[in-house]
Amino acid sequence: MSIAALIADKGYVVADGAMGTRLFAVGLSSGDSPEEWNITHEAEVRAVQRSYLQAGADLVVTNSFGGTHFRMALHGLEDRVCELNGAAARIARFEADAESERAGRPVLVAGSMGPTGELLAPLGNMTAGACETAFAVQATALAAGGADLLWIETMSALDEVEAAVRGARSACDLPVAATMSFDTAGCTMMGVTGNELAERLAQLDLAAIGANCGNNVPDTEAAVVAIAGADHATPVVSKPNAGVPVWSGHGFVYNGTPEMLAAHAHRARLAGVTVIGTCCGSTAEHTAKIVAVLAGNEPPPEVASTPDPGTVIENRLARRRNRRRRSA
Fold first, then answer.
1. What distance in Å separates the CA atoms of residue 221 and residue 203, rounded to the nearest whole number?
2. For residue 296, what are the contacts with CB-CB under 8 A and spacing of at least 6?
3. What is the three-class DSSP state of 131?
4. Which site among 25, 132, 185, 310 is 20 to 30 Å from 195 CA-CA?
C-alpha cells in the first residue's frame, strides 16, 4: 500500500499528530533525546502511536525526527544512529500492523527525517556530500526497521531537502515525501514560499509534498493551499501545529482545539490537500475529530483558525479538572 493507493481508495489520508510534545507530557525532559526513548521508554512511544492509530490515522510517523548523526551528536549518541532509527521504525511497524489486524485496514509507516540543524555551504559548514550521507545512513536504518516510506519534514531550506532526497534514494528504494515549515511571515526560515516549494519539489517525483509544524495554522494553511493550487500531480500534505503555545500559568499550552484543527482539515481538503494530520501540541483527540469530519460523520466545525487564547486555556484547564475529579 502507498499514499497514492490510499488516496485512490478513500480520497485522502489522515496522518497522525505530535510525538515530541506527547513525550514531554509523560516525562521526557528538555534537552533529552526523544529518539533514545525508543530504547529506554519503548512503552511510552508505543502508546503515543497506538493512540493516533486507534483514533483513525492512516499514517503513523516514526519517533526519529532528530535521527541524523548531526542531531544525535548533540546528545552524545552519534554512534547509535542505526540502532535508534531502526528501533523507531520497528515500534511504529508493530503498532501499525496491530491496528491493521484489529481494524482490517491498511496503515502506512513513515520514517521521520528532520533537519540536521546545520547550514549548507556557503552559508554554513555542512557540505552537500556530508548532508546526503547523514540522511542515507538514517534512511538505511528506517528501511531496515520496516518503514513504508521516508518522511523528510520541518525543513527550511530547499537545498537541504534536495540533499536529503538524494541521500535517501541512494540508500533504498522507498518512496520519499517532503514537507517544510512555514514559520517566518508566511515563508520558511530561509525565505521559501509555498509556490517556490511546489515549483522545486514537484520536479523530484516525490510521494507527497507540503507543510508541517509552522508558526500558526493560518500560515500553514495558506502555504498548502498555494502548493495544492500549483500545476502538479503530487499529493499535498498539511500537518499544522495545534495552534500556538501560550503561557497558562503552569506552562505552555497549545491553543488549537480539536474543532479548530478539524475545521482546517475540512478547508484544506476542499482546496485539494489529500494528506492531512497535525503536529506539535496535538493529541489523539485532534486526530479523532479530523477523522470524523473528513469521513462525513460530523459536520465541519465553524471555528476560526486563530482562537482566543484565554478561552482555550480555560476550557482545557476545566477538562483537566473534570478528568481529575472522575479519577479521584
1. 22
2. none
3. helix
4. 132
Q: Residue 231: CB partners within 8 Å, gap ≥ 6?
A: none
Rounded Cα–Cα distance for residues 74 and 72 (Å): 5
- Residue 3: CB atoms within 10 Å: 25
User: Pick from 64, 60, 45: which is nearest to 13 by CA?
Assistant: 60
| Phi-psi group of 2: left, alpha or beta (phi > 0 → left; psi -120 to 50 → alpha; rest → beta) | beta
User: Is the predicted pLDDT of residue 264 greater than 80, yes or no?
Assistant: yes
- Beta-strand runs (E) in 156-218: 176-180, 208-213
> To 10 degrees, the CA torsion angle through 204, 11, 22, 102?
-120
pTM: 0.91
Lowest mean pLDDT among 21-35, 127-141, 176-190, 292-306: 292-306
3-state SS, residue 254: strand
Q: What residues contact residue 145 under an 8 Å CB cut-off, 6+ apart?
A: 62, 85, 86, 87, 88, 89, 90, 93, 111
In the chain, % of residues over pLDDT 90: 88
Strands, sheet with 149-155, edge to edge from the N-terminal-most edge strand: 13-14, 275-276, 236-240, 208-213, 176-180, 149-155, 108-113, 59-61
Give how far the C-alpha of residue 126 lies from the chain's centroid of Cα atoms, to the nearest Å: 25
Helix (H, G, I), strand (E, B) or coil at 237: strand
